[in-house]
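Changelog note: in this version the structure field was regenerated for every chain. One regenerated record is shown below for reference.
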Amino acid sequence: MDLDTLLDLLQWPAMAVTLVAAFLVGARHAKKRIVGFWTFIASNALWIVWGVHDGAWALIALQAGLAAMNVRAIFRNERGDPAPDDGVHPGQQST
């Protein structure tokens, strides 16, 4: 199989990794969410490689922006910032 065919097929593992990441970031535990955001970064990289191969420049820009948001989310989760749906507001102690 040639490199062009392999790069064409890369969209399928990229899609699968993206789905796994979306599942993980929905977790209640920060450690699982962090793994999910790292998984999203892996999917961003896969999509960027595929986008360069296919000349999909808007997709590349989107994935770069999403990767930056995923890095931000990793730092927020490592600091212990509450998840948006846990009912804890900034400055309030969780019970």
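Spot check on this record: The first helix runs from residue 3 to 9. The mean pLDDT is 89.
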